[in-house]
Every structure is written in C-alpha cells, then in structure tokens.
DNA sequence: AGTTGGACCTGACTGC
DNA sequence: TGCAGTCAGGTCCAAC
C-alpha cells in the first residue's frame, strides 16, 4: 500500500497541467456525496460546472485545479485517491466517486477505493489564501524553507521527528513513506524528540527532505505493495525501487547491512536502521 | 497548548 | 473454500 504524498501529488499535477489546461467542465457526476466536502452535491456542481481549468498547482499533498479566475478545486487524495484522465465513452473504473466531464468528451475521474479522500471547491483568488489549506506549513522544496524555519517549528516540541514531519505544520506534504525515507537519509531515529536536534542535525534533516522529495518526483513517485499509487495516466511510479527504509523490514540496510527494523510509533509503523539512525 | 490515541474506510492478507 | 479478524494510513477530533 502506498499512499499519495507530495511527490505523487506533484507528478499528478504536472500531468494534469499538460492534459486539462484550457478544458471546460460541462458535466459533474457525484457518485458518492461524501466525496465532495463540505458542499452538498448540488452546491459542488454549481461551483464547478461551466468553469474552465486555467491552471494546475500543488500544495502539500493536494493537487489544485484553478477554475476560471478565482476558484480552486482542492483534491484531497486521502489514502487511495487517484485522478485519472479518461475518454468519455470508456467505462469508469470501479470506485469512481466523482467524474468531471469536459467539453471535448474526456473525463477527469476521482477514483478512491478507501473513500478517505474528497474534493472541495473554494473561491479565494489565489491558492495561497485557501482557508482549507491555511494550516499547512511551508513547502519543503521552496528555497524559503530553511533549517532556521525548521528550528522555529521544532522548538519546544517533545514529539518524535516523524510525527512532527507528518503533522504538516512544520513542513507540508510528508506522509509515512517519505517520513521514513527522510529520517533514514538524515541518519536520525524516527522517534527522536524534535527539541533535541542540534543545528547540524536540523541542517541534515532539511537537506535530506529536499533531496528525497526531489528524487522521488524525478522518478514519478512511489508505487509500492498492493493497492498502489498510480499517476493520472494509470502508470506506476519508480521510486519504490530506490526506497531505503519504508517497507524494507528485515532487509539489509544499504549503508551498513544491518536488517531494517519496524517498530510501532504513533499508531503506525516506522521503518529504520537501528545502526545508522540515532 | 502540546500530546496521544481512536475513528473513519475497504482491499489484501492471515489463520482457523 | 470460506469466513472472521487484522492491518494499512491521511486527516480530524476528543480527551488528557
């Protein structure tokens, strides 16, 4: 099971930019009312129908479609959400929750087996001012995200670094896969208390986050295990081949050869090398 | 305010 | 073969 995080959302957003920019939404089909929030189906349809996709962006783990001049369609992929571009006449995939039909006959389908995801429409002018994303921290790949900013976010936090990374307030877009990979790359134990990091360790953590996320985007994201992530064309990513920690329990650490361990943490499992991560 | 753990959901897997 | 139980985890929320 691999869940969409920042690199997967970025891959989808880039592909959608190439596919649906300029396309006008002429039909909105909501198969599962809970998959549009917080609107009623009727309100969601009224917000979206008739508008043209003028931009595609990403914030954290969320692809964003700009509709017209001032509205945004916010895509919360949840655990299993997919955005698939399909031809109108082709049969919709199982678990299609919402379908947006374009004037050229194609459809953008929100397919979400686990139903943890949803779509929101919000009119706010710029993506930066979307209230639904206002609690998100800085973008890790922005040059404005620095060790100094991380230090500020970690100050006084006794929680483990993976928990803090995954909360999304210190930095946006990181979930289980990349929290494990970033901790590994930084040589830090995933449950290391956030307020005990030295300046050097914080620099390592920021550098590791940027490098892991950039490489994952370059490889089209992670498609691991069973119900895996696929991009907007239904294709797998390639980063699962380059994972160092996530889902490698018992396999040798690529750095020191010790078996990768998996320990319960925050109600989830964390994968790490007991030898390399302190 | 920070921290912790449970709820939500369903496909894949495990064990009897 | 089949069925019950368990696990996965993004996000929200209640309780300490």
Instruction: Work out the helicity level.
Output: 10-25%
Helix-strand topology string: HEHEEEEEEEHHHHEE
Biggest beta sheet attributes: 4 strands, antiparallel
Find the count of extended strands (DSSP E, 2+ residues): 10
| Overall pLDDT metric | 94
Net shape: globular
Uncertain stretches = none
Question: Percent of residues in beta strands?
Answer: 15-25%
Q: Biggest sheet: strands side by side, in what order?
A: 1-6-7-5
Give structural notes.
By secondary structure, the chain is an alpha+beta fold. Helix content is about 25%, strand content about 20%. It contains 6 helices and 10 strands. It has helices at about 5-20, 40-50, 145-155, 160-165, 175-185, 200-220, and strands spanning about 25-30, 55-60, 60-65, 70-75, 80-85, 95-100, 105-110, 120-125, 260-265, 270. The strands form 3 sheets. A 4-stranded antiparallel beta sheet has the order 1-6-7-5, covered by helices on one side. A 4-stranded antiparallel beta sheet has the order 2-3-4-8. A two-stranded antiparallel ribbon has the order 9-10. Helix 3 packs across helix 6 and helix 4 packs across helix 5. The two termini are about 25 Å apart. The chain binds a DNA duplex (16 and 16 nucleotides) through loops.
